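Exercise 7.
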Amino acid sequence: MFAKNPVKRFVVVLSVLGLVALGSLLAQLAETNRNYENSQAHVQYLQSRLGEAHERVVQLNEEKLARQEQAERQDLLEFKSATFHKKFPEFSHIVDVAFRKARRYGFNPNLVLSIIQVESAFNPLAVSPAGACGLMQVRYSVWKDELGIDKSRLFDVDYNIDLGLRILKQYHDLSGGNIQRALFLYNNGYLYHNTGYLARVNSSIFNQEPREASPTGVSN
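Solution. The predicted structure, written as tokens, is:
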């Protein structure tokens, strides 16, 4: 029948070709849609990674600035220290020794400086009417045997501060860690009752910290 009717045969062939073309077009559209979705997912992934990279760059920049500020502060501290040492070499040496010895015996360096200020006003050659000597006002007659004191070194800065802190450490241990009691004994021994000593040590400028921090006090 189709052979006898070429028009119908042409229509059928054309229809088949149209269906094939439509199927191919739909398949291409589906593939294009899949590719688009994949591209969108890839773009989102890249955006996410880009955001992470940006955050990392910001973090690294902040860390760099922090290191620069820290280095600048360190340079400033070193400059101040060098200038301070040039201007006040003897006092600078006393501060250095007080810091090292305080750490060695477990005391606050500010407290040690406060004791030195009250005891001798930072005069390494100070001698009291009672015979106490040097920065920490060590009494040779009292401690010469127990500490094996070398009298020839009694006014040496390092040696005198070390002797004073050895004495304070003994009183501190004897007082069960009560620094106020230890200071009272350091100043008075067992014979006197001088309640003003603690107040003088506690009010020393070396015991005062910036307002945002707590004062060290004699209790530290």
